[in-house]
Amino acid sequence: MGVLIALLSLAISYFGYALNRSKSIKADGQQSAEVKAELGYIRKGVDDIRIDLKASEKQMVALGERVTRVEESTKQAHKRLDTIEKENE
Question: Would you state the pLDDT for residue 6?
């Protein structure tokens, strides 16, 4: 009778261990899937930031070109004003 109880408790212990191991594997798989999904969202966010950055860089280049043209125009206007002032003296 004692041997039967020992075998029965051994079987119950093994099944409990197997059940907990299965739950642990499922939890690890679920956690891995969540991490992969979060990495996907982060990757998409980084890609969006890169696209926005390229657009901003293009705008900055265009703005720099406009500033250069305005500076040249201002320089020419000052030269014309200096010429007019010299003529009026």
Answer: 77
DSSP state of 24: H
**Could you tell me the two tokens for 54?**
């390229």
Cα 10 vs. chain centroid, distance in angstroms? 52
Q: What is the pLDDT of residues 39-60, one digit of tens each?
A: 999 999 999 999 999 999 999 9
For residues 12 and 6, give the distance between their C-alpha atoms in angstroms, rounded to a whole number.
10
Max Cα-Cα span within the chain: 129
The one-letter amino acid at 73: S
Amino acid identity at 40: G
pTM here is: 0.53
Quote the CA–CA distance of 89 and 87 in Å, as a whole number. 6
Q: What are phi and psi of 61, to 5 degrees?
A: -65, -45
Q: 3-state DSSP call for residue 60?
A: helix
